[in-house]
Amino acid sequence: MAFTWSVRNLVLSRRHVLAKLRDTTNSKRKRWVQHHALRRNPNDDFQLKRTLQPDFSFLVLGDTGEGDASQWVLVKKVVHEGKSTAFMIIASDVIYPAGRSKAYREKFYLPYQDYDHDIYAIPGNHDWYDELTGFMLHFCDARSHFRNFPRLKWHMEPNDLRKIRQNEIFQPNMYFYIDHPKIRIVCLDTGINHRIDGDQLDWLRTVSTGTQSKLLITGSPFYVDGERSKRHMDPVLKIVNDPSNGYIMVIAGNRHNFQAYRITPSTEAESKPVWHIVNGGGGASRRSTHKIPKADDMKLGNASKAQLREDTDFYCYPSSADSKAAKRQERLWRRVLPDALGRSDRPPYYKSFMKLEVDGNQLRAYAYGVKDFTRQEDLRSEPIWRLEGAEAISLSGPT
Ligand SMILES: [Fe+2]
Asked: N or C, where is the chain less crowded by C-beta within 10 Å?
């Protein structure tokens, strides 16, 4: 199995170049919201309404959709760990390279057909390259949008695909939240260039108020490769860093590996640590970690660097040594190119995903990793990273 780029996909996937010159994602997102979500309910606050048990768990995968070995290598472990979960969220790049509806069978429905619970998602830049059409069709059931275009026969395709796997409920929008008495899960769409429009920012401010514990899931990390990201997300980080909003963790896709940073936003007494997780190892080609600086040398902006300790406050997968060794095994031309150009789609894959467990007043978090296609007994392997016991995060309900 190999990940391929057709000419049409190649053209569509060049949209990030156009988007650098003129990014129309925000206006397109607003149009989708007007045409789909708000047409059904003008007062919709985009809550994904579903019943959850007092104690529940869920999976978060990132950057899944290549449809090749680098996606499939993780699937058995995902299904194994996901048996008792309530749902899965895929955070960014559900379908490479260009989000097209036609690719959903191979890159979404078939890989996760044995996962028996709902799967929700937020789009990544690649899902936006077809103007979010495939994503809206499959996750938001936006078929009514296409009924006036009978020549677009593929818009009925989901009927067949839903025989492979079917959600109980569709999500209301490409950005939404899920509520539980102990935690609110806020899912954000950051488009092609890691920006959000004014309407989404207003919505985020509204759903972020109150000290109820919150988890943000986004396609764009604030801290990645040992640096504070220079992207256009400052207003969002300000909301996350405000202790009165109750954010405890951010999980982001986009970079194809696992990185965890415990960041204390400032030295002020009321400032509480927020875990910032890069969780993009769900299926796309591996990105190296061995060039990430040591915790002492990281450039984390205003964050309180003094409190970031190697191993306890920072962790990455693959480890620096494993990443270096894997790069050495690559063909020469791949070794000299940066990861983004020289794709690392061979074993060892070092793919990963997260499982989060709400238990009473605590949130436990785990990351699981898979190096290569596993035997049945390997499915019971231990997490590569965990927050449990004394490290579990205390949760607080709405005030
Ligand atoms: Fe990606």
From this structure: C
